Amino acid sequence: MEEHLIPRVHGFEILMASYAMAHLKLDLLLKETGYKPKKQPRLNIYLTNSLEESHPDTGTLFATWLAQEANEANHIKRENPIMVVMGNPPYSVSSSNKGDWIQRLVADYKKDLNEKNIQPLSDDYIKFIRYGSHFIEKNGEGILAYISNNSFIDGVIHRQMRKHLLETFDKIYILDLHGNSKKKETAVDGSKDENVFDIMQGVSINIFVKLKNSATK
User: Fold this and answer.
1) Half-sphere exposure of 63 (CA within 13 A, CB side)
2) What is the C-alpha to C-alpha distance for residues 130 and 124, in angstroms, rounded to an integer?
3) What is residue 127's predicted lDDT score, i.e. its pLDDT?
4) How far is Cα 194 from Cα 70, in angstroms, rounded to an integer?
5) DSSP string covering the chain
6) What torsion, rounded to 10 degrees, do the Cα atoms 125, 130, 135, 141 define?
7) Closest to 178 in 3D by CA, of 150, 153, 139
8) What is the domain class of 82-217 according to CATH?
9) Angle 80-83-89 (CA atoms, 0-180°, nearest 5)?
10) What is the rounded distance in angstroms from the CA atom of residue 156 to the CA atom of residue 25?
11) Beta carbons of 102 and 135 less than 8 angstroms apart
12) Whose CA is closest to 137, among 75, 79, 207, 83?
């Protein structure tokens, strides 16, 4: 486990509390499996913004450990082959993640739309889908698996996004959990369509698979 699993599991977290909790929960989970480390391993969860491009290692005015966090995260973004990207990205139409790198990537979803309002395509969850897709493309194979906002499934302005996903991945599995309170949908038996989470936006489970040596469609 210390040689093959732990070194291959990486996580990026921007919030300090979540960062600390992730370390705690992973440590508890490993202990529950009966794992007894020969020496306490460094769990590869880093305090960083996932949607920022890797940049040259630089010193900071912050504590040495924080600078090291940034440097380690940069190394993974630049060098490590990423075979699986998974998570539950945030939903935020009023995204504050406006870095040039992620904006350039998401531009693929905005080409030739000729729509009056494409602001929803700047939602954080869409940026994270494009982010994960980028790393799987870079690796040449892999799996992108997210629980996310489901608006991209049938949204008119999301058609270039769907096209790009179809061109990038060989197999796509989507389980639409519905639950959008604004759509007034009902369950099959006519009862209220309740969200599995305590939110108004509908949700879906999405698994995108890119096979090794697959031809670009």
Assistant:
1) 4
2) 10
3) 95
4) 40
5) -TTTTGGG--EEESSHHHHHHHHHHHHHHHHHTT---SS-----EEES-TTSPP------SS-HHHHHHHHHHHHHHHH----EEEE-----SS-----HHHHHHHGGGSTT---S--GGGG-HHHHHHHHHHHHHHHHTSEEEEEEEE-TTTT-GGGHHHHHHHHHH-SEEEEEEEE--TTTT-B-TTSSB---SSSSSS-EEEEEEEE-TTPPP-
6) 110
7) 150
8) alpha beta
9) 95
10) 40
11) no
12) 83
Chain centroid to CA 167: 19
Structure-derived torsion over alpha carbons of residues 124, 130, 131, 134, reported in degrees to the nearest 10? -170
Q: Which residues contact 130 (CB under 8 A, 6 or more apart)?
A: 102, 105, 106, 108, 109
Q: Which residues contact 57 (CB under 8 A, 6 or more apart)?
A: 70, 71, 74
Does the structure show a pLDDT above 90 at 214? Answer: no
Least confident of 14-18, 61-65, 72-76, 124-128: 61-65
Dihedral angle of Cα 23, 24, 29, 33, to the nearest 10 degrees: 100
Question: pLDDT of 20-61, one tens digit each?
Answer: 888 888 888 888 888 887 776 678 888 877 787 655 544 444
Calpha distance 202→174 (Å, rounded) = 13
Q: Where are the domains of the chain?
A: 1-80, 82-217
